Amino acid sequence: MTSIYPQFVVAKFGGTSVADFDAMNRSAGIVLADDHVRLVVLSASAGVTNLLVELSEGLESRDRMDKIDTLRTIQYNIISRLKAPLVISKEIDQLLENIARLAETALTMPSTSLSDELVSHGELMSSLLFAEVLREREAQAEWFDARKVIRTNNLYGCAEPNINLVEDQAEAHLRPRIEQAIVITQGFIGSDDAGHTTTLGRGGSDYTASLLGEALQAARVDIWTDVAGIYTTDPRIVAQARRIDHISFSEASDMAAFGAKVLHPATLLPAMRKNIPVFVGSSKNTAAGGTLVRRETENPPLYRAIAIRRKQTLLRLHDLHTQPAYRFFAEMFAILAEHRVDVDLVTTSESCIALAVRFFLALHEFRETTAADNSTWVQSPNVG
Ligand code: ADP
Ligand code: ASP
Ligand code: MG
Predict the structure, then answer these.
(1) What is the mean pLDDT of each run of 10 residues along the chain (384 residues)?
(2) Cα(201)–Cα(241) distance, integer angstroms
(3) Probe target for ligand 1 pocket from 42, 207, 225, with the most ligand atoms within 8 Å of CB
(4) How many whole angstroms from 207 Cα to the centroid of ligand 1?
(5) Alpha helix (H) ranges present in the chain?
(6) Is the pTM of this model over 0.85?
(7) Which of 18, 55, 111, 363 is least surrounded, with the fewest CB atoms within 10 Å of its CB?
(8) Does the CB atom of residue 234 touch ligand 1 within 6 A?
(9) How far is the CA of 207 from the centre of ligand 3 (A)?
């Protein structure tokens, strides 16, 4: 289909950028200031996903009611500032009722599928409200259910997208909509083949934005957050951190993978595949500029940045020379693959291999698998 918006931009707004009415209004201003923005991807309002995650863990009645009241207050603080709150308040009430019902079920019949269904409500609510904020500013804005397009497997909580299916669905369902209106959709959520709601992992809205940018060949993906770009280290922790104005896909991707929370670790992969520049800036201060991530940068420094990743486990393995090293390594990685354990860092020496892995829980399964053979393992206390 020939597009009337060949240079269109995907704009993603994180939790603090849609935290309340003023933040939403500021973010709406950013959307309206750039005619190229035709697709808007939203996170849940700040704090909402955490509350929903707690509810999905199965809370007793009193705690449950408290959390749902807090959720209602966040939504109604926004609704009360709308000029015509009635229509949207009915839809939000319906979603709050769903949340209450699902949270009650989570106590007696918890499941990962139910958790994803429950936490998806944060993005569903923020996107409905944001579309309304835009309409009240005379924009032609249309709400769109991202689950129609973001098709994933059924690994609830960290579902993996089916890139080809996402492209087909986006072309069929989303492209025609962005020709007609500014489309407002949800980050983070998708659906599996059975039609159940899935999520892409915490912070996954960035990933949604770049997946949709890839699927529709956007000219740029803008990630609007609470910092004016990617810094040499987390500016909230180190005041002397400096903004990096231009950075390559691979450098920024490594930073994200090693803990720079500003981008979900998978965000840059779709952008890299289609060579789509990604801009990162602050929705609170657009004048401050930001970082442009693109294929190449001139004169990259020897050291780019420092990142921190907490909750890492260091695992040291010795095989006591019972087999050739290559076989030992091959078997070890096969076991890790079988258990879907991500390895972040590897170092080897003649007698030992050290791995930094993400999930402590996975190690218990790993220990069971390796206990029967000759290898020994030493697990360090959690690092970070
Ligand atoms: P959003 O809700 O908009 O997705 P996040 O909280 O996920 O925002 O990401 C933004 C945060 O990332 C910043 O507030 C900052 O503390 C953190 N951060 C970590 N490392 C970096 C870095 N190198 N550069 C910029 N921000 C970073
Ligand atoms: N709302 C989700 C989270 O808090 C996804 C996101 O914000 O990117 O993790
Ligand atoms: Mg984020």
Answers:
(1) 79 98 98 98 98 97 97 98 94 98 96 98 98 97 98 97 98 96 98 98 98 98 98 96 96 93 95 97 98 91 87 84 82 88 83 79 49 45 42
(2) 27
(3) 225
(4) 14
(5) 21-33, 48-56, 61-79, 86-108, 112-136, 163-169, 175-180, 205-215, 249-257, 268-274, 325-338, 360-371
(6) yes
(7) 111
(8) yes
(9) 9
